[in-house]
Amino acid sequence: MSSTCTDPPGTLSLACTTLATSLGDRTAFRFEEESVGFAELDRRADRIAAALRDAGIGPGDRVAILAKDSLASYEVLFGAARARAVLVPINWRLSPKEAAYIVADSGSKFLFTSVESISRLRECGGLPCEPRVISLDGPAGGDSYESWRDRPRAPVAVDGHDEEDPVVQVYTSGTTGHPKGVVLPNRTFFHLLRGMRAEGDVWMDLGAGDRLLLSLPQFHIGGLWWAVQGYLAGATGIVIESFQPTVVIELIQRWRITKVPLVPAMIQFVLAEPASISADFSSVTGLLYGGSPISPALLERAMDLFRCDFFQIYGLTETGNMAVCLRPKDHARGGGRLLSAGRPLPGVEAKVIGPDGRRLSPGMTGEICLKSPSRMIGYWNDAEATRATLVNGWIHTGDAGYLDEEGYLFVTDRIKDLIIYAGENVSPAEVEAALRLHPAVQEAAVVGAPDDRWGEIIRAFVVLRPGESVKAKDLSRFARGHLADFKVPRSFEFVDSLPRNPSGKLLRRELRSALWQGRGRLVN
User: Fold this and answer.
1) What is the pTM of this model?
2) Could you report the per-residue pLDDT of 287-327, keeping only the tens digit for each?
3) What angle do CA 303, 307, 313 make, to 5 degrees?
4) Which CATH number is 347's domain given?
5) For residue 280, is it within any domain?
6) What are the contacts of 385-392 at 24+ separation with CB within 8 A?
7) What is the pLDDT of residue 174?
8) Over the stretch 255-289, which tens digit does the pLDDT of each residue have?
9) Degrees (nearest 5) of the Cα angle 195, 200, 201?
10) What CATH number does the domain containing 454 carry?
11) Which residues partner with 113 through β-bridges?
């Protein structure tokens, strides 16, 4: 990390002021042809905080933002933090009813959004408690966002901020029921990397000379955390409105981006662009990926394209994002480490437990639990769910996996998705990964179907690549070359697409529920 901002104060508000003093007019964020320096961002945060205060927003009040990313997204983040309010970033891809639920559930008194989004929200009748609305791309009570922000007001007090104060509330995209609001304190953005630096661990060596691509959205903890880490390091964040592979390729070259975060699906889209073949990615020194499984073949193609250090991270919204990391040295081709999520970062603990809650030995599969200094305070207005997930400082992830003898974590599946075939636990993710190795297969989803003899049998739903064809018996034979016999699907169904939620997560439960209709229990 750069010596100019090695250890900023542990709240977003105070860090904003400190970096304004040390970095002045250096560019903090850039969006399209606009940019804002560190000092100017601090001034805008002051104005927004004063405007929120004058609108009746006080410490702990929720302030929502429902809009594609822009410079305003980060002005609002730091302005809300300065007002000691809690920012609720909402996925703009959600349906109006889903977005309205989050506005209502969070009790947000203020909503930053777009003209289009607020019209859709009102049309669906989903805002029973109307918040004060400021449109980021149109008039707001007769004023533009900028005129509302810049109207002269008395400054707010800058004292009273604490690392344990809640600062953001990020909603998880659960596969069942309504999403839950994960309340994260200021320390989420400071404690982990601060502890790593104290041990001499520079991780990705973020510094004031870096230019970070902000290709993950602010409403996702990965995108929010990444943007703030770059900012705290004194780097410049290059904001994109929403992910488009052609835009990513163009911006990397135009601004000589040094650090890039991409989820596996994004990597695949970039690789599929013809422009990537001749693109100059020589400025990129580090690529961060995670969020879902990645095939070794796709990873190796990405490594050939970018030719930089690769870092895989594993974590949850509840852990404050990153908790486990697979470092560049573990990305050797053909090595078993590529299937691992990595090792817990300094300051983070990991354990795997059985159904009785006891810690399991290396190699044994159970539920993964993580203890991180960045962990959540809890779920908003859901004490029961908080008690079930946060136990004695440990986040129970709901993911299945195991630790090896050297402390590397292998994530095999979600606990609830495990298939029980003839008494054997089968991880759908493991079977899906094997099927994706077949050159004709684009995507696969595996679920348990009821069977009177075996309890459950494994059924695969397969999406083929355009122009490809393959028979079920050939896929079965192929799978046997990669899996134990009991893990090979007993039936295959070829489909055009797989069900996913707005964040792109595979909804295996939708596929499974259709197979279990009419049964009193969903286990057999």
Assistant:
1) 0.84
2) 999 866 677 788 889 999 999 999 999 999 999 999 999 99
3) 55
4) 2.30.38.10
5) no
6) 385/180, 389/318, 390/318
7) 53
8) 999 999 998 888 988 999 999 999 999 999 999 99
9) 75
10) 3.30.300.30
11) 66, 135
